[in-house]
């Protein structure tokens, strides 16, 4: 699906990966790298773990579930990416262009695909042009933010019991939004998968935490009380 720059350019500049881009630079970058849209249905796979990566994916709408299969064949849910997030950066950096995870659509998704022909180089544009240098700087900043999401997940999983896992997750989220009110972006079942626990056990612990005056809970909104 072709990009209508006159319609979409203002939307794209709201994404962190395109922040500080003059409109003419962004238009040049998208045209040069051969950008296009792809639409996916819920549960459709964009990349399987181990697939060759042939385009950088920027999520325009919808959400992407990231999963990892271990050496024993167990499929583990890692986290979700949402509008403005990206994946597939291995094809641009100096690393093997192999997908480390399976990326599956949690909902219907619209993806901006940036193929960057010939490994971040095309015949139309040199690697040293201003738009590419700015994009690479933004990309590295966003990779650091993506890595923080995985670090937070590891911190949660390192806790000894479900209550500690929940509180660690909620505190991390509250620090991001600078509020004691936290809205989780997924269902209770997916929250249980994120924590690596059984859903019924999660609901039991949440009820106990509410009774103990640690949290208030209204659907997907948590309020940390202590």
For CATH, the homologous superfamily of the largest domain is named as Jelly Rolls
Give average pLDDT, whole number: 87
Would you state the CATH class of the largest domain? Answer: Mainly Beta
Order of helices and strands: HHEEEEEEEEHHHEHHEE
Seen as an oligomer or otherwise, the chain set is single chain
Specify the number of helices.
Answer: 7
CATH architecture of the largest domain: Sandwich
Number of strand elements: 11
Structural class: alpha+beta
Helix content: 25-40%
* Share of β-strand residues: 15-25%
Pfam families: cNMP_binding (PF00027), HTH_Crp_2 (PF13545)
Protein name: Crp/Fnr family transcriptional regulator
Domain HTH crp-type: 160-226
Keywords: DNA-binding, Transcription, Transcription regulation
